[in-house]
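Morning!

This is the sequence you dropped in the shared folder:
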Amino acid sequence: MEEIEITTEYIKADAFLKFAGVCATGGQAKWMIEEAQVSVNGEVCTQRGKKLYRSDIVSIVGGPTFRIV
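The structure's back. Tokens below.
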């Protein structure tokens, strides 16, 4: 599990995917979220603007898992 450090109170799901290097564009992030390719704390995330906080676990279907620190 890779740890990703944020310096703000939270980060939105689509911005996190770009920040973590999972996808290169906001369009790719939007598609991944709409296609249920992203889970947050074990639950499928379908909201691009979902706020992610420290200690949240983000998993990508068929890909890496991240912990926000």
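Headline: DSSP finds two helices and seven strands in the chain.

More detail when I'm at my desk.
O.
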